[in-house]
Each structure stands twice: as structure tokens, then as C-alpha cells.
Amino acid sequence: MSLFSTSQFKYSSFKDRAFTAIGCAVAVVTGFSLPTLIVLMGHLLLKFIVFQSVEAELCGNQRLTIGRFQSEAKLIAGYMALVGLAMLLSNVIIVGSLGMSATKQSFRIRHYFMRAMLHQEVGWFDTHTAGDFAGRITADLEKIHDGLGEKIGMCLFFLSTAVASLISAFWHGWQLALVLLALVPCLVILTTGIAKVQSKLEGEESTAYHNAEAVAMEAVTFIRTVIAYGGQLKETKRYAFGFWYGIDLIVADFANPPGHRKYLTSTIIIVFFSVLMFSMSLGQATPYFQAFANAKRAAGKVYQIIDR
Questions:
Q1: How many H helices and E strands in the chain?
Q2: CATH number at residue 98
Q3: Structural domain containing residue 268
Q4: Can you tell me the distance from the alpha carbon of 49 to that of 268, in angstroms, rounded to the nearest whole number?
Q5: Where is the ABC transmembrane type-1 domain (predicted)?
């Protein structure tokens, strides 16, 4: 079952759809910023290492080397600052455009829902209680707003970051990337399973909102806490192995001439943090799928009343 359908945006205007498209496009482009920062950080650290090794062997003009190092380091740091500034501005555009679109759509849906409630026949109120109306106007409409707002942009941002990080990791060192990615499929399967269970629990909680809200929310919260604390030791061992294998590749690469060496210190930093960013981005994007599924489910219930 798809997470989105055109029916979710049936009460949106052309301007709302335009703002949504702008926010989504900016979110996808912004996703490349974090992998770019990782690459720049790797090159900056390499400059420090090269400068230290050259400085130890200097016997002549030391100012020339220091001046060149400072100029190159400042240039890379300037690029990183520009990328950070671009991320700040793009996040303002993402949150502003998607938030504005979702707020207008939510207000329009509330208006139509209230009007539909007032036009229902008397027999409809005999089978529906006042709690149904309160639950729809608060819980379901809030879920619809979440599924139409900035969560779309954040999900696209994390997915774009994951794809860009994976491409960067394989581009700079596919051997080390494969080693670090060995356990990612298990992590993705586990995360997807948890998201499906949480989505099912959210659906049951929405159906029995007035009777089991506290119990359901407490159960979901404890599940998240157990999963979060249970995986830390395994992740630490995994990335420690990645660093060890990266150093082994550097040592083996010393057999090649200096101009043909592929695995440098910057390669380990870039590949390691790119894979780490890939895993983190997937983990951060998964909960948004649950919000979108809940929004689609809630929209079906609310729109059914409006169209009745």
C-alpha cells in the first residue's frame, strides 16, 4: 500500500501544491549538503596530516609551507561555511513552504468537516457520539496536518542524504564501503519491521482512542527505548571494525607509488562517516513513513464524512 495518494491533497489549491513542490525539491537538493560537508572535512583533515609530515622534514623556508597550508585550509573551511549557510536557508524554505501549505489545507479541511457535521441527518448522530466528533477534529485532523506538512520535506531530506552518502562512500572507497555496509541490510529490515509494528499499533490506538490511548502510547514509547539502548554496543563494534579495516587498506596501499594510492587518511574519514550518515538517515526517515500511513488512514475517515 502506497503512503501517498492524490486523495490526500484533494482539498489543496494550486498555490498549496506549488509550495509543496518547492519544499520537496529544495529538500531533495539539500540532502546532498551533509555528504558534501563530509568530503570537505576529509580533505581538511588530510591537509593537517600532510602539513605535519612536511613540517617535520623542513630544512629551508618554513613560512612558505605554513602560508600555503593556511590558505588551503581557509579555502576549505570557507566552502564548509557556505554549505552550512545554504543548509540553514534551505531549511527555512522547506519548513516555511511545506508548513504554510499544510496549515492552509488543514484549515480548509476543518472548515469542510465542520460544515459536513452540521449538515448530517439526525439519524447519523444516533450512531455516533460526541466523542467521535472530538476525536476526529483533534486527533485525525492533526495526523492529516502532520502528513501534509514539513515531515514530507524532512523525509525527502533524509532519503536524499542517504542516497548521496551511499554514492559518496562507494565513489571514494568501495572496498571499505562494502565492509561497513555488511550489517546495514539487517538494520534496514529490523527498522522496517519496527515501523510496521508501530504503524499497526497506531491504527489500533486511533480506533480505540478513548479507551486505550495511554496504554498504547506507553507501549510504543517503551518499545522505542528498548530498541534504542539495545543496539548501541553492536554499532560500536561494527564501526570499530570498519576503522581497523580502513587502516589495513592504507597499509596495503603503500605498495603503490604515491601518485597512484587510492586509500588515504581522508578516504577512511569520508567513507566511514558517509556510511554512518547513510545508516542514520535511513533510521531517521523511517518514522516519517509511519506518520504518512497514519495521515492517509485518518484522511480516509475524515474525507468519508465530508463527502457523505
A1: 11, 0
A2: 1.20.1560.10
A3: 6-306
A4: 13
A5: 21-240
In angstroms, the Cα distances linking 100 to 20, 22, 262, 272, 289 are 9, 12, 48, 38, 21
Asked, for residue 92, whether it belongs to a domain, the answer is yes
Cα–Cα dist 25/20, whole Å:
9
Task: Collect all residues with Cβ–Cβ distance below 8 Å to 94 and sequence separation of at least 6.
Answer: 23, 26, 27, 30, 150, 153, 154, 157
Task: Provide the 3-class DSSP secondary structure of residue 212.
Answer: helix
Domain count, the chain: 1
Give the separation between CA 238 and CA 232, rounded to whole angstroms.
10
Classify 4 as helix, strand or coil: coil
**For 111-169, how does the pLDDT look when each residue is reduced to its tens digit (9 = 90+)?**
887 787 777 776 666 566 655 565 566 677 888 888 888 889 999 999 999 999 999 98
CA distance 73 to 167: 25
* Portion of the chain with pLDDT greater than 90, in percent: 20
Q: How many other C-beta atoms can be found within 10 angstroms of the C-beta atom of residue 52?
A: 10
